[in-house]
Design goal:
- With about 280 residues, this protein is α/β, with parallel strands linked by helices.
- It folds into two domains: about 1-50 and about 195-280, Rossmann fold; about 55-190, 3-Layer(aba) Sandwich (Rossmann fold), CATH 3.40.50.10090.
- The chain contains ten helices and ten strands.
- The strands form two sheets. The chain has a five-stranded parallel beta sheet with strand order 2-1-8-9-10. Strands 3-7-6-4-5 form a five-stranded mixed beta sheet, with helices on both faces.
- Helix 6 (about 165-175) links the parallel strand 6 (about 150-160) and strand 7.
- Helix 3 runs parallel beside helix 4 (about 115-120) and helix 5 packs parallel to helix 6.
- It is globular.
Length: about 280
């Protein structure tokens, strides 16, 4: 895919870039939106930020603290998001729990999330070939003696919208492997108020947004509560960050035009959008 697109650098004229003048709505939370927007800009696009969810600290650390204080009992820790890694280690530091407590744990992270895991503890034991919870399960099932192992799954506490099926499905699949699964909330994911986005919602309704880029199911769920009707999306191209987000979008009645096949990074996501305009079907 990369070889089919015009190679660019900072001095490439905007009109030569594949997403030139395309207005792309970014619904990711702030800490992800900045990285996704940078990739869009690099391809000539015009990111319009409209985070539909936000991530923040827990209001109650009782259960997380209890898990961290006994962290050495776990054989595996499977991180499914960058936010989960950050919240997990920041709380470890606040509790003065030594990183040596993790020496007997196998740590798993998805795609580029492995970089931040390494920055916190200089250790990552598994990066699945497929950057998804399903990829985690596909790798773990090949490990002899995985049944009976204790696995901790740091996850968000979802507030204001139904919880997406991603983490529950992961837990169910790990249990099918015979693992002893403990889910622990490490941070909060909550929807934002539609009233802060009168301009952005007006642009959508007028058909002035070219692409809506969804990077998670929670973003889509919250986004739909902000619309008057799904018919407002008819003039927009819908892009999803990977097949699982796309499948959930379709289940919610959204026609998906672009699905990234490289969902290990936002670069791959934006390349998929650029490829759509380079060779539209």
């Amino acid at each position: 895919m990369h070889s089919q697109l015009r190679k660019t650098n900072l001095l490439t004229a905007s009109c030569l870039l594949p997403l030139y003048n395309k207005r792309i709505l970014v619904t990711a939370p702030r800490n992800y939106a900045s990285r996704l927007s940078a990739q869009i800009i690099s391809q000539g696009g015009l990111p319009i930020l409209m985070p539909t969810i936000e991530t923040c600290n827990l209001s109650n650390y009782t259960y997380l603290d209890a898990a961290l204080k006994t962290i050495s009992q776990f054989d595996w820790i499977t991180f499914t998001s960058r936010n989960g890694i950050i919240a997990f280690f920041e709380r470890m530091y606040e509790l003065n729990i030594c990183l040596s407590q993790l020496q007997n744990c196998q740590l798993c992270a998805l795609g580029k999330d492995a970089d931040i895991l390494l920055s916190f503890c200089d250790k990552v034991d598994l990066i699945p070939k497929e950057s998804s919870p399903k990829g985690i399960v596909n790798e773990l099932c090949q490990i002899p003696g995985i049944a009976g192992k204790k696995v901790l799954v740091p996850a968000p506490e979802v507030i204001g919208i139904p919880e997406p099926n991603v983490v529950p499905n992961l837990i169910a699949d790990l249990q099918k492997l015979g693992m002893q699964v403990t889910r622990i909330s490490t941070y909060i994911t909550q929807c934002l108020d539609k009233n802060i986005y009168p301009l952005e919602l007006s642009l959508i309704s007028q058909g002035l947004i070219d692409v809506i880029a969804f990077s998670s199911t929670a973003e889509i769920t919250s986004f739909l509560t902000m619309l008057n009707s799904k018919s407002e999306l008819e003039k927009c191209i819908i892009a999803c960050f990977g097949p699982y987000t796309a499948a959930n979008a379709k289940n919610m009645g959204i026609n998906v035009d672009i699905v990234s096949t490289d969902f290990s990074s936002f670069e791959g996501f934006v390349q998929a959008i650029a490829q759509f305009y380079h060779h539209p079907e």
